[in-house]
Amino acid sequence: MSKITRTLLILLIMFLAGCNSPQPEPKQLPTRTLEIPQVPTDTEIPPTQGNTPFPTLTPTNEPEQPGPPTEQPWQLPEGDPIPLYPAGEKITLHKIQMIDQLIGWSIAVSDSDTEHILHTEDGGYKWQDVTPPQPLADTGTKLTINGAFWDEGTAWATYNGSDFVWATKDGGVTWQAAPLDYETLSGSLFSVQDGNHAWMFQFLDAGMQKVYTALYRTVNGGSSWEKLLDPYTDASIQGFDKTGAAFINPQYGWLTRTFRGVQPQVELNLTQDGGFTWEALYIPEPPSAPEIFNNCNCGLYNPDLNSPLEGSFHLSCSCYEDDQQIEWDYLYRTNDGGETWEIREAPGGDFVYINDQIIYALSRDIYRSEDGGESWQMVRTVNWDGQFSFIDRDTAWIVAINGEEYALVKTSNGCDSFIEIKPKVIASQSIR
């Protein structure tokens, strides 16, 4: 073997030995444990709603940012309240509503024109002034009340010229005021279904056969009132004078109006959604007077509901024959929600329904029906007009009016006779 060949062989062996020698292990990087904080088992995580994130805590070293401004509570307008009558004050009752033989309410005046609310617990002989703390109006303004009285403790009232309504649950010892959207300008009409549910038709202004009306409802005894109809957006019941309303449940009710002789179609308005919407139910003419709607001034009055299917009202039409004014009156009754009507001739006056059989027709000629209006008997004639408050067939208190003279009288025998009551004011228990 030559020297060169031996050298090349040695170099080849060394190269192969280097390729097979063990390689050093790669250097290991130290591992780092990620610590995840654990929620204690006795801590409840509140569930999220939708995509709402958990609230972010404000660092204690930064001032907390103020939230949006809160709505300020409604405040009663400033002003001295109507002063209560002192014991012994001479009063004149304008309206009365008795609840039972002893307890009742009245609206009365003294020397001024400002009307007060009074409460009796002895049948009308002694009265306490329980007028709400209505702020006095400007000098010379007559403060008149429209009120509704449900039981011995519950009443509502609103004054002309104010944009709020009063409510009491304790017989007028205390009153709570709630705001309205508009100011009462031409009175109001209440309809009460029970001690929690009541409706108020607020009359704002009138003109061109319209009586602009806002309608409110309370479902909590008068603590708050929801506006259902606005005169600027509603057209269903804005026309003509409203004469009465009746609700049999929180959803179903009737509204009656008088049409001033300018609308040949006489309608009853009814609601099935608590007063949000009203539909017109056109009334058929009496068979004995088929042209009466075209020739006379007709209106509906005194609505009364026994159920959503059963109800009554009074149709009164004023007609002129040979230059003489003649009035025609009818009792309308339905048992099928107004699909059909029983129509009976009736005396004139205000109708008071003692029950579905006993009905009074009250004017200076007093009539009574004991068979649901099929027949009527004259009770007696009086020489005064009256605002009657019956508690049963035989017992009623009446504010008798003859011109500018007022008197409080009572009957205990169904208007066969009357006695006069002299009301007396005693010290008030109302809290001011």
Task: Describe what you observe in this structure.
- By secondary structure, this protein is mainly β.
- The protein has a domain at 240-345.
- The protein contains 2 helices and 29 strands.
- The strands form 7 sheets. A 5-stranded mixed beta sheet has the order 1-2-3-4-29, with no helix packed on it.
- The chain is globular.
- It starts with a helix and ends in a 6-residue tail after the last strand.
- The model is unreliable at 1-70 (pLDDT under 50).
Concise structural overview:
The chain is mostly beta strands and 432 residues long. 5% of the residues lie in helices and 39% in strands. The chain has a domain at 240-345.
Put simply, the count of helices is 2
What about the largest sheet? 5 strands, mixed
Mean pLDDT: 85
Shape: globular
Alpha-carbon distance between the two ends: 137 Å
Keywords:
disordered N terminus; five-stranded mixed β-sheet; 29 strands; globular; mainly beta
List the topology elements.
Elements: H1 3-19, E1 92-98, E2 104-109, E3 116-120, E4 126-129, E5 145-149, E6 155-159, E7 164-168, E8 176-179, E9 188-192, E10 198-207, E11 210-218, E12 226-229, E13 241-247, E14 253-258, E15 267-271, E16 279-282, H2 292-295, E17 297-305, E18 311-321, E19 324-334, E20 342-345, E21 350-353, E22 359-362, E23 365-369, E24 377-381, E25 385-390, E26 396-402, E27 405-411, E28 419-421, E29 424-426
Parallel strand pairs: 4-29
Antiparallel strand pairs: 1-2, 2-3, 3-4, 5-6, 6-7, 7-8, 9-10, 10-11, 11-12, 13-14, 14-15, 15-16, 17-18, 18-19, 19-20, 21-22, 22-23, 23-24, 25-26, 26-27, 27-28
